Every structure is written in structure tokens, then in C-alpha cells.
Automatic annotation (TrEMBL):
Keywords: Iron, Metal-binding, Oxidoreductase. Residues 206-306 form the Fe2OG dioxygenase domain. This is S-norcoclaurine synthase 1. InterPro entries: DIOX_N (IPR026992), IPNS-like_FE2OG_OXY (IPR044861), IPNS-like_sf (IPR027443), Oxoglu/Fe-dep_dioxygenase_dom (IPR005123), Plant_2OG-oxidoreductases (IPR050295). GO terms for molecular function: metal ion binding; oxidoreductase activity.
Amino acid sequence: MEAVEKTIINGSLPVPNVQVLSSKKLTEIPNLYIRPEREAEPALGAHLQQEIPSVDLSKLLDQRFSEEESKKLHLACQEWGFFHLINHGVGGEVMEKVKRDTQEFFKQPLEVKDAHSQLPDSVEGYGQAFVVSQEQRLDWADMLSLRLRPISSRRMRFWPTQPTSFRETLEQYSSELMKVTNSLLGAMAKNLGVDPDVLIDKFKDGMQSARINYYPPCPQPDKALGLSPHSDASGLTILLQINEVQGLQIMKDGNWVPVTPLPDSFVVNVGDVIEILSNGKYKSINHRSTVDPEKERLSIATFQSPSSEADIGPLPELVRDGGEVCYNSMNYGQFLKLFTSGKLDGKGHMQFIKKQKPSITQPFLS
């Protein structure tokens, strides 16, 4: 297996293609993929077989049911940071097209996919993100990362030309998710006691990006991870689990809780930006992906974020009455750079924006 060659900042080192590794029918995975911390994990007990809440977007937007559904959304964002989104309004045809085209892309020969490989100074393209050092452990996954919006930010060399319908499918999917995102942001704002336009405007002219994930079968799934534990540096993340193979896990009360795929739904999670804007009322949650010994897993995570020129900090409406301000303000582009310049490592990047509480020291006694 080729070695990771050096250390890099603001990009990702090239690593072996995991889909190719998996096709070799190995009985053991290379050492770089072994996670020693997994050996100490307890087995998932029945008490951990909880399920994240479900929110019905059609009811959230219907005055007859919106009050009750808004309460569900509020509790989900406060207590879980994750929820299933059902009756979301994205047409079945669009959903099926994006699933089909994603599966077809990863079925292609490596040389076809490599035509869209990442460049050294970017995490965009085909490969694996957040690989910054030869010492770090690697994820058992390949991915395709793309900028979707604004349209002017797209780097089309990374957008697949095969299957031929993929670009049009991604365009349709992107447009539909923008509508879903704005509906959720408006409802969250109301729950926080803020004018919906105030929160939605924070994402005006913002960025939408996608990470299309392929997790091949793994011969030692209990020793590997498909994606390292992390929170998302976005505002909201909308995940489509393409082939409904379980793998997503979230941290809840100090334990990893699996998220069961729900047909025709999305999994939505609160990102770091919403945690900051809400002054901590809503929390971004650590999550990770595990792998399966026999089945491949595919998913698309779509991230909605502010513009890189925007400043992020607690909304003034939430702290103007003398409440504690829990976060500093920071340029979002700078915050995102902190996130992408290191390996995925929980919520460590949040230390740069969280206000540090003054330490209590004993007075000097002469």
C-alpha cells in the first residue's frame, strides 16, 4: 500500500482508493485504517437503540398543524441536533434520479472517476478529504466533494460527465434542497423568537456544497470507520441515505447511537453555524459513519452555509437583554479554513470561537 507522503494545510493528501482496496477481497485491512479506540467501545445495548425524532415538513408549513410540529422541531434541535425529515416536498422523481446517478458514478472504472480527482490545494473533487498527515488514521471511504451554489463558485472540472444526466440531476437536487433549507431556517427562527428573515438572511448569497460518500464493504468493520467523528461547520446539513444501509451514528449522552435509515426521508442536523447564531440554544452534534462487512453504503450530505465574507456570531436578538454571550464573532471564511485545514477531530475547531469563561483564582495573600 502506498504511503501518505507529507503534511499538508488547506488541502488533502492523496491516499489509496478504498473502493479498489475493497475489491481485492482482503481479510485484514491495512494498518492505516485500523482505529485502536474502537476496540474499547462497548457493544450497543438495547438501552441505546433510541431513534432520532421525526419532523414532518408538510405539517410544519400548514397552519393547522404547525404549532405542534414546531415544538417537535424545537426539541429535536435542542436535545438531539438531528432529526428525520419526512414529507419534505422533494419530488420522488428527483430523489430517484440522484440515487441512480450516484450509484452509476461509483460503478465506473477508477480512471473515469479519477478524471475528477482533487487538486493539492483543495478538498473539492474525487478522493478523500481531511487527510493532512501521514500519521493520521484513514477513513474507509471515497468521496466526491462539489460546490453547488452560488453557481459562479462551481468548478466544473470536478462535476462528473458520466453518467450524462448527473450534472442536470445535481442542479435539480440543489434547487429543491434550497427550498427545504429556507423552510427549516424560517421555522427554527420562529422557535428561537427571531424574525425568520433575520436567520434566512444570514445564509443569503451563501454556499451550498455536497459530499457524495461511498463506503465499500470492509472485512474488519469493528476496527475501522467510514468517517471520523466530527460536527459540521455548516449551518444545516441535509443527508440522503441512498441505499438505506445503516452506518450513521450520533453522539447522545456519551454513547454512539445508530440512526436507522427511513425510506423517502432526509436526515437533517444542526451545524456549527446554527449553534453559534443561536448562542448555544441549538447544538451541533458529533457524528460518524461505521462500515458494513458485506454491503456498500452510499449517501449525499448537502451543506448550507453563509457566504465566506459573512460574519458569524450570536444573533443580537438573542443576547440583547443582558444574557451571556457564549461565542465570539468571526468571519465565516476564516472559521471554515480552520475546519478544513486539519483532520476531522470532533468539535475541536469550535474552541476558536467559543468564549472562554474567566477562571476563578484565589486572591493573593501577603
